[in-house]
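Objective 1b. Sequence-to-structure analysis of Futalosine hydrolase.
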Amino acid sequence: MVATAGEAERLYALNVSGVEIQVVVSGVGAVAAALATQAALSASSYDLTISAGIGGAFEGSGLTVGGVALACEIVQADLGAWDGSSFLPLSALGLEVAAGNTGRFACWPASLSLGVPCGPFITVSSVTGSVAGAAELLRRVPGALVEGMEGAGVAHAALLAGVPVAEVRGISNFVGLRDRAAWRISEALAGLDTGLRRVLECLAESE
């Protein structure tokens, strides 16, 4: 599942022995991603759903632009309520997005070592554009590696369908002050290709 045609373009040629791959362009954001994932999972049977694309890395994560990271957990970090200046996640409100789930989705294959940095990924509805905003997200999700806009939507649909989920993102920029000119899209897409190959090779070996 990828958000844009640009992110999908080079993935159509992705070939890993023993794995049948379908690339679906969902559109941007968690809602579009959830609906597209639900439609795909209803139409056929799959062993794994992957949310793939480019994303921003958090400063201090150890990631570099052009690198790649794998999610051990996907957190829908802006779903909750503001109480004055304090943000309350769903867990603090006693609410769930699905039975037993408060917007934190465990990922496959978080327990495996693929030689790719692995940690929590954050899903937001709006890309962060300030240092303060990045710091607030890290306060909510300590150790977060990457920010994206679709992962939690894909994960929610996969959870309801009973299909494992993974998220892989190539790093195009750092989260914080928005400097579109500094983004490195081609390098991030190359990193994404590398990360996806490792995940799919692991999937093939597990079959």
